[in-house]
Amino acid sequence: MNPDIRPQDDLFGHVNGRWLDEVEIPSDRSSWGPFVQLADAAEDHVRTIIEDLAAGEPRDEDARKIGDLFASFMDTAAIDKLGTRPVRPLIDAVAALRDVRDLAAFLGEFERLGGHGVFGSYVDTDDRKSDRYLFHLTQGGLGLPDESYYRDDKFAEQREAYVGYLTRLLELGGHEDASAAAATILELDTQLAAGHWERAETRDVQKTYNLMTAAELKELCPAFDWDAYVTNLGGSDETIAEVCVRQPSYFAHLSTVLDSVPLEDWKAWLLAHVLRSAAPYLTDDFVETNFDFYGRTLNGTPELRARWKRGVALVEGALGEAVGKEYVARHFPPRSKELMDDLVANLLAAYRDSISTLDWMTEETKQRAYDKLGTFRPKIGYPEKFRDYSALSISAGDLLGNVAAASAFETDRQLAKIGSPVDLDEWFMLPQTVNAYYNPGTNEICFPAGILQKPFFSPDAHPAENYGGIGAVIGHEIGHGFDDQGAQYDGSGNLNDWWTADDKAAFEVKSTALVAQYDAFEPRALAGEKVNGSLTVGENIGDLGGLTIGHKAFVISEGGDASVEDRRSLFLNWAYVWRTKRRTEQERQYLTIDPHSPPEFRANIVRNLDEFHEVFETREGDGLWIDPAERVRIW
Question: Where are the beta strands (DSSP E) in 272-404?
Fold first, then answer.
């Protein structure tokens, strides 16, 4: 803490100031703080689990696969001996393409094996019919983090470095004129980026819901052979019988780019995608080239992570729930789950109480909000049923083959959902993940075991600390059910307008005020840059509601008589959990693409809470002072 910074002026700086001045970010990290520290600890635990499972006898099939996959990644002698041979079939397939329509067939196979093409695709519930799964299509195809990187002058250096990276990568892949090809790829990327929606616009859940039949999709983007793509992806006629197209204008634009760009240019672009996808699993020169751009240049990270850490990440990506089952047995005591059940119940009760006192919402809409709260599904710690990996084949001597097999296994698992009943018990995070989520399509909040540790939560902590940590996080995730996106979904997970017109207008006035407040914020580490209030509004509403309700729930848990000292402790722990230091490169990238505000503004959202001003006795002129009439309070 820095006692020279008053909490009334800057709560984040007061709690974290000396730490920010003195801490050194580890050389293999782009940021540091409680989130990353807990992730590092979980990584160590998982490494031990992997090694124990690999060495233990007798081993079940999951244990063997975990050990063999990790061994295939750690066997650098075999990787060096093979060179580029594991990726040669894909390189040859690119060279053999006869016309642009062949590209679709190739991309189906490539994406099945873990690659990325000219768009993104995923399977999720239908936003208007949540009892079924749909294939979703979204804009994509870029090698840089966002479309703004291709047009904004402030990213000119990154564009230049991107061309240098592509040149080196293509040289390693044996391209005869790598520098010319790299320039061509940047030009093609730029053409694709010209059709992208701006990032804040992609948050509009109404604009991005566009249900189309296969015939309508083919009419929208006729230059792409959708049938060949789906066949090679591993799908069927049912896969795109109906599909949700998130940014239709991008796919119309893509069709014109496919028609106008020569095949040889596409071959260079595809070769770079193949090499980039395989690079982490090839020889050190590929690994280093890839890391130099995506790690050092874009995120400012000086040092590549140790090989065992990258191996752990691979195992978690391929067999994460098999590892998670053992992680829970070793590191998540039953008492934690019981206490979390109580916390969640208190938070939901606090939300209900808060809604009852809202002066801007009518009783009609309040009743519907209560109905939605009543259908929230909390998931705590770990899934009731862990994933079945019996169909996944893993060999200790074939790293890239294992990567492809794991990707194909997951592709098949996802595609098989279409036409099947929605699995409400599925988890979208691993138990060992240090994070949490709200899913509007199933109206569920999920808190994996990994985040249920200090400073977020501890069975032995003072309740004020738990409510300022995980309590506010629970409130945040519940709040996503009522943010600018989530408030448009009903309790069944469907886009359904349950608001009166006047209530919706009142909500939008408050949301707009929060957007304007955040638009004015300038990060302390990026002079002259500003937060994008429109991009971050959903997370800011989550933070605002989460902390407000976390505080209310704590007071309720104390019988309505919580001391000023304890309430101060709650706010201090809230600021502590956002203790984060980032490298400048990552700070700049996140300011452009991340829907979360920089951590300092997440902590200092307290400026909007009457409760904060009360317990810290703020006055006009203090740094966090806002006139009561201008404070934004939604939930």
Answer: 377-381
Is residue 279 within 8 A of residue 165, CB to CB? The reply is: no
Greatest Cα pair distance, the chain, in angstroms, is 75
**Residue 262 and residue 118 share a domain:** yes
Alpha-helical (H) ranges within 96-205 are 102-112, 156-172, 178-193
Beta strands 211-213; 129-139: pairing state: unpaired
What CATH number does residue 475 fall under? Answer: 3.40.390.10
Q: What is the mean pLDDT of the chain?
A: 96
Final residue of a domain: which of 234, 253, 281?
A: 281
Smallest CA-to-CA distance from 104 within 214, 228, 221, 216 is with 228
Number of helices (H) and strands (E) in the chain: give both, helices first. 26, 9
- Is the residue at 293 inside a domain? no
Strand order in the sheet with 377-381: 377-381, 444-448, 437-439
Count up the domains in the chain and report the number: 2
pLDDT for 164-219, tens place per residue? 999 999 999 999 999 999 999 999 999 999 999 999 999 999 999 999 999 999 99
Q: pLDDT tier at 58 (50, 70, 90 boundaries)?
A: low
507, two tokens:
């909500």
CA–CA gap between residue 226 and residue 212 (Å, rounded): 13
Residue 539, phi then psi, degrees to nearest 5: -70, -35
Neighbours of 8 (CB within 10 A): 20
Q: How many CB atoms lie within 10 A of CB 501?
A: 8
